[in-house]
């Protein structure tokens, strides 16, 4: 992470948000959204998913979106690969970061990708090998995600030790980043502390990111708990767009704007201009309808006399 | 606090919620709401405000609501008194708890009650004397609130030392409880820790409660930070009803249902049955419209296989 920010906020609305929408956002709309977030100061964006277009037509333009996003100076471009085949599509473009996700919940993993959890974990090793064989080691980072790490619609609570073991496997397999996801919004701050402490004990110097959903209102409380553990990378979605089609009852990710406001208020610099970020909402709203976006900061506006973390640090 | 719960959740929707609604909820509706929350396990409810009926016709039935609520076994009945006159009305009924609020922000205090902050603080002493003179010491508790303690629409950030001094004054003056309120939803978890630690250093054995609004999405994160400081009393409003008519941009209190879910998930017993609590929403919705109630738990439902804090403690 560059030294002028304290916390990296990664926008995942273009992937986690759009994978649940019926309306297909045109490529130009996606690029406008990416460019506007970058201009607001967002430095890392998950822009697409390399799933087969017949399964998710929303991502039929993944190659074009990734290629054009990679041409934007200062942006780290991430794309999801659901399997080795998807990862190979990503490697062909030399994308900056590929994320690959395994469910800690065995049942959810089978429902989601029709494979046993252990088979999915083993696949990550093959993705690392394919990346290295493509000569992309040190150029394309591999972020390994663990979904349903804080609860599962099918299995309920997930044992902390299961998460720890999976994280240890991925760290050993060569992950450049580990992402811990509360896919269905079951987590509470106490559990977050417990799970992240267990994960951090296995991951050494590998950065750990948190991916929270705000399904039951605890999203930012969980961020605060993760901050207490030393986590400094968070996924979020503009307007809280998103969810998981195979996890009944899941709703959106934590809201990027609200996350950035809380972090900034806490004196943690994100590099993101809150007013400019709020203005970006107009772009997805144009395609998906303003009603599809949530967010408390957008509703209430910044506090009067608000001074940003940077302003306070330099005052 | 009784030993079978870890955290006291106080419902304030009938006061802080209704003071901003144009629709007047009939007395029978208020009583049905109070009874249903009590049946769900809520042990303390702020049921009315002793403001002049010409200013807030919503509370013209304050005497009747308080009297009938006090007849319900097991319920602690609290009512707001904006001044000595209001407190005297409350004392005449022997209400269990009277809360009286001063703004830490001098500007907000003048706008809200047309008095200097120091005059408002001094009035609390007179309220204590009036309570004692009425022979209610040990019977009617006096909760002293400090609003805008974490930010003000007029003044912006509020110095921690101002909050500390006001809390020290109220503790010295004989408050049975001190309530720290983020009236306009400016607070972040770091600030909450700072302010509550400063307050707790002045309040000795006097219980301190937190009253958060969720205006900018940080409400439950602030609860979690307050829990870290040892706070075990929280105000909340069913469906997040509420705000402050004199604080531009303020929106509702934290949602009682979401607060109870987070606490329960953390293993903190509230004594409140989440499903029964969710069902209570039908009562205010009947009068105010379902759209006036927010809440993530109501939208998403309890997690599947959810086990309550009590079930887990006794498993």
TrEMBL record, chains A, B:
<dbReference type="GO" id="GO:0006552">
    <property type="term" value="P:L-leucine catabolic process"/>
</dbReference>
<dbReference type="Pfam" id="PF00682">
    <property type="entry name" value="HMGL-like"/>
</dbReference>
<comment type="similarity">
    <text>Belongs to the HMG-CoA lyase family.</text>
</comment>
<keyword id="KW-0479">Metal-binding</keyword>
<dbReference type="InterPro" id="IPR013785">
    <property type="entry name" value="Aldolase_TIM"/>
</dbReference>
<dbReference type="GO" id="GO:0046912">
    <property type="term" value="F:acyltransferase activity, acyl groups converted into alkyl on transfer"/>
</dbReference>
<dbReference type="InterPro" id="IPR000891">
    <property type="entry name" value="PYR_CT"/>
</dbReference>
<comment type="similarity">
    <text>Belongs to the alpha-IPM synthase/homocitrate synthase family.</text>
</comment>
<dbReference type="InterPro" id="IPR043594">
    <property type="entry name" value="HMGL"/>
</dbReference>
<keyword id="KW-0808">Transferase</keyword>
<protein>
    <submittedName>
        <fullName>Hydroxymethylglutaryl-CoA lyase</fullName>
    </submittedName>
</protein>
<feature type="domain" description="Pyruvate carboxyltransferase">
    <location>
        <begin position="7"/>
        <end position="278"/>
    </location>
</feature>
<keyword id="KW-0456">Lyase</keyword>
<dbReference type="GO" id="GO:0004419">
    <property type="term" value="F:hydroxymethylglutaryl-CoA lyase activity"/>
</dbReference>
<dbReference type="InterPro" id="IPR002034">
    <property type="entry name" value="AIPM/Hcit_synth_CS"/>
</dbReference>
<dbReference type="GO" id="GO:0046872">
    <property type="term" value="F:metal ion binding"/>
</dbReference>
<dbReference type="GO" id="GO:0046951">
    <property type="term" value="P:ketone body biosynthetic process"/>
</dbReference>
